[in-house]
Design goal:
Distance between the termini: 101 Å
Keywords: Membrane, Transmembrane, Transmembrane helix
Oligomer: single chain
Radius of gyration: 30 Å
Transmembrane segments: 6-25, 32-52
Length: 69
Amino acid sequence: MEYNFLIQCIIIEIYSIFRLSFLTLKIYISRLLTLVNIIISLAAFSCSWFYMSMSHLHTPILGFYTLAQ
């Protein structure tokens, strides 16, 4: 009887450890995905901002160049 109870306690302990590690793994994965999402959105924003600033810079220069010729 004691032996069976001990085995059940060990199984419950192992299960709780695995469940806890799975939960922390899920939390870490979700945080990592959030971080990747933030990095991707920042990169897209900076690329679009760079493109917008370059296009705004190039249009007057090209306009003055064609005006000068």
